[in-house]
Amino acid sequence: MMVNNPVNFEKLKSLFQKYNLSRLPIVGCIFAAFTCVPAAALPHSATCSNTGEVNDIFTGSRQSKFADPDDKVFRDNTGREVFFRGWNISGNTKLAESGFKPYRSLEDADNDLNRIRQETGANLIRFCIAWEGVNPDVDRIDFKYLDDILGQIKLAVSKGMYVLLDYHEDLYSRYLFNQDSWHTGNGAPDYVVRGYPKEYAGPVCTNWGQHLLTNGAVRLAFRNFWNDVDFITRNGVRKPQECFLFQLEATLRYIGENLSPEEMSQLVGVDPFNEPADGGMDGLTPKEWTNQKLWPFYHKCRRVMDACGWYNKQLYAEPLVFWNSNVGFVCPATGSKLLDDIPERGFVLNVHMYDAARRSWNFTNPSSGCYFSNYDAIRDFGRYMKMPVLVSEFGMANGGIGAKDPAAMLAAMYQAMETTADGKTPVRPRFYVQPLSGTQWQWDYYYDHHNEYQNFNPDKLLTAADAWNGEDFSVVKDYGRNYNYCKYVFCRAYPRRIQGDMISFYYNTLATDAWNKLLNWAELSDNDSYRMLRDKQFMLLIWSGKTSDYPTEVFIPNYFKPSNMLIVSDLQGITAAPAVTDKPMDTENEIVLMSDSGSESGYRLLSWNDSEQAGRSDSLHYLLVVNDGAELNPDLRQKLYSILNKSILVEQVNPLFLP
């Protein structure tokens, strides 16, 4: 959909210069953000040269007639829609042993980030840092710490990954806890919480999260932060938010001054406060607290970002931590649609999704479709906020079975992030679904090889699992060489960039749960009378229109073998056993399979839409990639092609069936 009024290029240019955005490709930004009209067509070889690089991320709306206009999306400066899959790197930041950094050394970071990219094709890292690392004492910035994290960020972006800078805190601060405490925290430095009462969660503390509800010291610290209560330091009176913003500004300026414009373009923004807890609302309702305490803090952080030249970066704002709690009456959900004054720019809705009920009292096994309602609530929250959505944490502890099986739970969560049911029987996904970008918690390079003295207690050395409050969430072990459960759950095919507006996508994982049961939850269906591909790993992507001349880009895991791969497209028909090449041939509506990041990596599948009618908001296109699909005989391949064309292009229904 084109805008009716002409764009005043000179006015926009002056605004970009005013806000220090002169380095941005202005024309590309304007087209991506305002008109979604592609620039003059480029040879495939020219656009291909840029597909391995990353560029600035903007927010906008889908233009397709099939999409919900209230769904906001990420776009790059070529006009393509961007979809994120990635990891939290990592819980190691919570540990003093690492100096509050994701990695102990650049060598470890290089090894691990290579593995992440090669195995999972991740294009986003939620990079955890700590307030206590940046600002260990009043009015002091630790530039050695900033140098260390800067080096690790540079490695991530050199491997083609975007970075979200996450100020990670849990339970506010480790310095609130006694040496012999059951648990610990992380986040605020020692000087901010000196003089607090002795922490005590109660005679029984079953989980570290209980401290948010019953630990008087932790709750008081949170209340004092949100109320910005004065405290005494050796340098005089300070306020906690004042101290946080002081180090935030120092961090953002230092990063901005020490990254090149190309590197800086790969930082998507800042998550200033992980899982904000209220600490007791002083008589306020959750709605009042959200409007009077939480969001004023976010607006302060937003102003610091702008002042530091991060105007075109997003603030990834988290709601009150218990907004979607499913624990029950002990900790009821506070709700989502609480903010009265929705900001017009500069924010992304940043939510977490954990199944606390199955981690405690719910003994129902995770199954296909079990999280549709949970993730639909997140989609609805995003529409209310008029923001793109990132599910920046979701995960499950290792070693469980049944209701606590991490493979089954995560497979169901990824499924619900990608699709939802249309509400009819038999179960089909909706034709249009807002897929949700996300970063899983977590990928810990040092899993089972830690050396953490909890609360600096020399008699309490933690080495096992994540080495923090008994958590065991890392998907990797043995320094990233092996996995704690079936890798097919999280090593998935997914679209990174879409040449138009994404209508839906789905990946049939074929992972196995703890009992070695196959999680084959989808198949292609012809009006429910003929079904196929339930025994295959496949990815189906549907999109509409054309907002860029740069290609759709899909990551294909390295366990897909090109010699036995089948690709079906409305643009190129049926392709079996595609060749892997390093450059396109500039043929019309071309599809190219390339190595993603080296000999051990997966693949980057590029698809160009050159058709004249592609820019129409009612044009539809699809791409199906099937592992072991080349073994299908010619009749089955043709049947597959017919099902896709009829369902998507003619009937405009999702061809998947969820048995």
Structure commentary:
There is one protein chain. Residues 1-39 have low confidence and may be disordered. The chain has an 8-stranded parallel barrel with strand order 4-5-6-9-10-11-12-13, surrounded by 4 helices. A 7-stranded antiparallel β-sheet has the order 1-2-3-18-25-29-28, covered by helices on one side. The chain has a 5-stranded antiparallel β-sheet with strand order 19-24-30-26-27, with helices on one face. α4 (106-120) runs parallel beside α6 (143-158), α10 (240-258) runs parallel beside α12 and α13 (372-385) crosses α14. The longest helix has 22 residues, at 286-307. The protein has a domain at 9-83 and 500-657. It is globular, with a radius of gyration of 24 Å. By secondary structure, it is α/β, with parallel strands linked by helices. A hairpin with a 5-residue loop joins β22 (523-525) and β23 (531-532). The chain is built from 15 helices and 31 strands.
Structure described in brief:
This protein is α/β, with parallel strands linked by helices and 659 residues long. 26% of the residues lie in helices and 20% in strands. The strands form 8 sheets. It has an 8-stranded parallel beta barrel with strand order 4-5-6-9-10-11-12-13, surrounded by 4 helices.
Jot down its keywords.
alpha/beta, globular, 659 residues, eight-stranded parallel β-barrel, 20% strand
SSE-based structural type? alpha/beta
Number of strands: 31
Count of runs of 4 or more consecutive helical residues: 15
Work out the strand percent.
15-25%
Largest sheet: 8 strands, parallel, barrel
Low-confidence stretches: 1-39
Assembly state here?
A: single chain
**How helical, in percent, are the residues?**
25-40%
- Tell me the span between the first and last alpha carbons: 37 Å
What is the arithmetic mean of pLDDT?
A: 91
**For the CA atoms, what is the radius of gyration?**
24 Å
Strand order of the largest sheet: 4-5-6-9-10-11-12-13
